[in-house]
Amino acid sequence: MKKVHLVTVIASVVAHFAYLIYLPSGGFMALRWRRTFWLHLPAVCWGVGVVTADLTCPLTTLEQRARKAAGMSPLPDSGFIGRYVSGVLVPADRTRAAQSLAFLAIAVSWVALAMRCSHSGRGRRTL
Question: pTM for this one?
Fold first, then answer.
C-alpha cells in the first residue's frame, strides 16, 4: 500500500512542476495554439490567488497526505515551493523575484496575443 502513496507523491510533484512550467509559458503557447488560452486563463488566476490570497494548493494537500501515509517526512510549512524550488532551483531569498518574472512573462505573452488577435482577420478577434 505504501507504493501507492509513493506514486501519489511522485505524481503530485510532477504535476506541480508541470504547472510551474506552464504558468509562464502557456501564454506563449497560446500564440501558436490560440484555443489553449482558455486553459491558461484559469491557471493564471489560480497562480495569482496562491500568491496574493495565500490559497492552499490541492496538490500540496494531496502530497502532504500521501507523504504521511507513505511514512515520509512532511513538507515544510512553505509547502512544495519551500521543499523543491526555494533554495534548490531559485535562491531562497529570490522566490518573490521568480514569481514576479513569471507573471511578467505572462503579461508579455498576453499582450503579444492581444496584439496578434487584433491584427488578424481585419480586426476580428479569434481566441
Answer: 0.86
